[in-house]
Design goal:
Chain B: It is an enzyme of class 3 (hydrolase). The complex is a heterodimer. Chain A is mainly alpha-helical. Chain A has 43 helices and seven strands. Chain B is of the alpha/beta class. Chain B is built from 14 helices and 16 strands. The chains are: A mainly alpha, B alpha/beta.
Chain lengths: ~900, ~425
Amino acid sequence: MALDLQPPDGRKRVKVYELRQNDWFDRGTGFCTGHISGEIPRIYVESEDEPIRVLLESKITKEDGYQKQQETLIVWTESDGTDMALSFQEAEGCAVIWDFVHSVQQQLLSVAAADDALSDDLENYQPIQLQAPELGNLADIEQIVRAASMTQAGRDALSKFVIRDEYIGKLVPLVTMAEDLESLVDLHRLCNIMKSLILLNDNTIIETVVADQIILGVVGALEYDPEFPTHKANHRQYLADQSRYKEVVPIKDPLIRRKIRSTWRLQYLKDVVLARILDDPTFSVLNSLIFFNQMEIVNHIQSNAPFLRELFSVFDPRYNDNKRKDDAVQFLHQCAAIAKNLQAPSRAQLFANFISHGLFAVIAFAVKHTKAAMRTTGIDILMALLDHDPVMMRGYMLKAVNEKKTPLTDTLIDLLHAETDLGVKNQLADAIKILLDPQIPMPESLGRAGPDFFKLRSSNLLSDAFVQQHFDDSSKRLFQPLKHIANRLSLNELTFQEVTLYSHLVDILTFFVRQHLFRTRNVIHSESLAPRVAQLLTVPQKHLKLVSLKFFRTLISLQDTFYQALMTHNNTFGLILDIVCETMPRDNLLNSACLELFEFIKRENIKPFILHVVEKYRDKLDQITYVDTFRNLILRYDQMQGNGADADATLFSQDENAPQRLPLSGQRWQGVKEMDAAEEEYFNASDDEDEWTQESRAAVAETAVANGSASPVVKPLVDYPDDDDEDEDAMDTKPEAAAAADGSMETPFPQVEETAVPPSPEASSVSEPSSPVSQKPSAPERLAEKRRREEEDEDELVKLAAGPKRRSSLSSNSGSTVMNRKKTLSIGSIGSVDKGGAQGVMGTVMSSAPPKRIAINIGPVKSASPDSAPCEEVVPDAGSEKENQDEQKGETTS
Amino acid sequence: MSDLDRAIEQLRACRLIPESQVRELCYKARELLIEEGNVVSVDAPVTICGDIHGQFHDLMELFRVGGDVPDTNYLFMGDFVDRGFYSLESFLLLLCLKVRYPDRITLIRGNHESRQITTVYGFYDECIRKYGSANVWRYCCEVFDYLALGAIVLGASSELEPSGSNANDLTQSTIAVDDGELETEVLNSRGEVTMSSYRPRQRASSDVDTDTQDILPPRDISAAPSQTSAPTRTGAPGTGASGDGNGSSMTSRTGAVLCVHGGLSPLIDSVDKIRLIDRKQEVPHEGAMCDLLWSDPDEIEGWGLSPRGAGFLFGGDIVKQFNHQNGLSLIARAHQLVMEGYKEMFDGGIVTVWSAPNYCYRCGNVAAILELGEDTSNGGTIARSNGEYGRSNGLSGPSSVSSPGRRYRVFEAAAQDTRGMPAKKPVADYFL
């Protein structure tokens, strides 16, 4: 017997352990080598300190006693029963020795087998030799292949042989032979052999399989799956069909043509022929082959200027082969789909190339197509671009506006209004959402730039006013239909199309508000959209009600005084309570959504709403007893009222707040803390007087409109919006003004207000001992470690992080991180009104509801008839607040 | 034959319906689902099913083994899509059946009924492949948002009527019958009993039960108008169970069964809390709604971190406490592959039901469905206290409820001649 093995090179540093009385005894550190001396394979370890001393000399046996553990450990039992362990310094060293041990064992086993003459030489994998295939010996071949596939060594040997001998090519003719003889048994054997060979998972073999002269034979064999003896697939028919390959503009490079074909075959293998039996390694081999092919194809296309010119010239208006135009759109669509899988730089390059050749014109052509399927395809291409780089796309769009061309957004908006195919409408809404996304993304996407990327970006960043104006204009256009429902007497007879349109519009509006409340404010108030959405709460279509409800729920969660005023001055809560009453005590989605809204207000302790709701709708609340949500709301209200201002002042203002004020004045940033409702309310005062006036004026107008429409009795106030619109228009025409306003809105706040986050006196004055946030039942901490991916688990959210961005923007509550950041910016400018009040509270007097009072102050009810303001009674000291305000002013100026 | 019936026929043959019809179906389903609570009340008898995962032919096998709709009432605990190659056919068929027989079939949401998950695990690709655009995927995802989060089964009988078709092992059941009433029974796909377990009779406690038994007003018949025509299938307890009247009044104390895809949440201490969730949203990454769809029971105490990255692990003590507090006798859930098709844990406090045999076409597991019989011992009235709001307050005194009789039907992947070779649909044309 001859061991045909190369002992491993080099010496691996290792510690030798022996198990003595259940304890690992350290026999010393040394260098490990594998030897074959006198046909006997051994592991040697000689001592590091005294090279002559042998720490270990162990004969490798064929018994299966060796274990590799944790990359660096080899553990086994000596023939005398001693347990031994080698702990390697390097995983690589361990692997080398392990491989040596492993291959020695393999050989010993096969040698032993040969010696015993119990089995034939099938198990001797070194090297493997298959007979030239013929129908007569398929059974033997199948058996050898199957046996060889069991071990890694066998697989390697088999792969080598199959490649060297071009064995698959030899198998192919047998398929037709067996078919001619109608020998199902042989066909099944061929199928099994093919499967095993493919699952050897070798790049070269798989590339061979999809080669022109081989592929049909291979899938032919795979048509006869013995697991489905009564079935025959028709893979050949599919793959032989040349007409499936379409060429808009012929690709001349034969290499690329071949790549296209083999990619298509690989995909077919992956998705159809092998779909059921693919193991993970083969799956990834197929995927990577496809990926690299596609890379090459796409690179070829985009670097092929004549090809691109010809491709895009198809869309020349003078040219009227419509079929070809459609095909060209499909072609581009497929390119875009492939691009999704490419790495960002190649993708950017491809898109930039397409765009410079006129991709936008193609999109415009497609989205106006008479066939809905083509419109869908066109928007899909657009979405691919938007997914790839929304900033770039917005840049192009703004450039178009700047050059007085019709921007893509206008086209899309008009289409959205007119579109009747609901699927396309859906897509349009998504595209508009992203194109108009008022949020300016951080420049994190630098680097995935197209040619004029930087130019675009800089123009984009610099002219914020311009962006705002475009946003306002587009939004006006977009929400026009929503505005029109103000004139409708009844919303009971909405058409299906109208309902769909409204729900898309409200959904988009909700998205805008959540993304960036400052930009959206202008639109919401100048177009008085909130009352329109409120109107939609009364429609018979429940899903539309839900969408509208979601809008208000989002407003509430923003905890912004502007939006709070908006809600408290409309009959919004009345309408929501109506829904509760209509649906109760039935347990349905609408009902749950309403309950959740009120639970949120209660949990987050949003005072303005608690006060407003309980004061205005107490009777209604009293009647809703089937859940305790509303009882608790009233309870919370009563607690607020019950804890008198004076008592609180003495309790808290001196002890806790006074000392806390000191560090605040000196220190601006204390990091962004999560503020609860009350805190945010209290400390969201603004320093910016100009903005204050502007915004509060806006709020007055807005609330006036709201009330006007809700109760037409208050006639004179209805005129407000018009005046205001004029103001707005004036502002819109002066971009600098808008810019100034914008700038002042965005930058100063985080510095001034966020620092002011001591524990709210309000929160502690309520008898609940814990802050609203901490009221949740304790759950195990969600540590970062929890997100760690474990190999065996497949359903993981982690995986999704790599998923397409767009779809996460569609999901209704994906904005949480954005929201958090927003929150810090969300300090409402209306809040500036109550600045004095809020800070005054900190100083001396405890007042239970400053924001509420402020809201009343600017509200039309109050201004129209101050005496009749119903809430005035419950506010403890309206006068003292004024004092506080003055006092505070004094403080800040000093 | 209505359009809907035609669509059902077509889908049963594993042929897709046109996009416009899908859209209409989804809108109808939405109208229906919006009226369902986050936790749907379902009356026994009902057959509870776990994950399907697009294994259409195995879903057909499930209907063959469990009885067809509308003859059998079904409750599917989510994960209709992804993994298998026929997510569309499976989900659309279930949705059609839901729209056609709203009272006969209940669908609740699984963690795979989500935009994010379906883009990774196959449903999105399948929609693109089969319909050429993502529109159908959008419609379906919209429906996902409306699906209920759980269901509560009321009026299940604690006692099983032994199945007649006691195949090979007759001695097993005849000996045991005297020891007590039949509690669980496992049947193979041919309806042969392979295992049964019995509950020891406790005369004393059942006497007590008779005394304290609340007779509640009859349930609102109008809510389930078709109740009278409920067909009796083999396995569903017939009237015989109530006829002997002598000993088995324990049945009236059978607790309700909560069905949810994943498990419990530390944020949810009562079934009523689930009602306060606004469920119309993408499945969030954390919070109560996420936990209900993602959590798993585990042999631990209290709560633990889940290796899945969402939801939690919860131990037997949590289950016990939750069941006690809510008057539940059992939590049925899916979400985890179990090789035997079902797995009871924590003294029968929770059961995992898995209905995708040979999962992913290669796991080699069998599947199961769980049948809960109807308790007829109260002359058609059932203890409703578990179904109404405030049930957590209403239960005072010793609330030791007995578990329902459980009949598991175990089945294997559909026979090969009833299906083609499962494969994805190839693309029609290509340019590149």
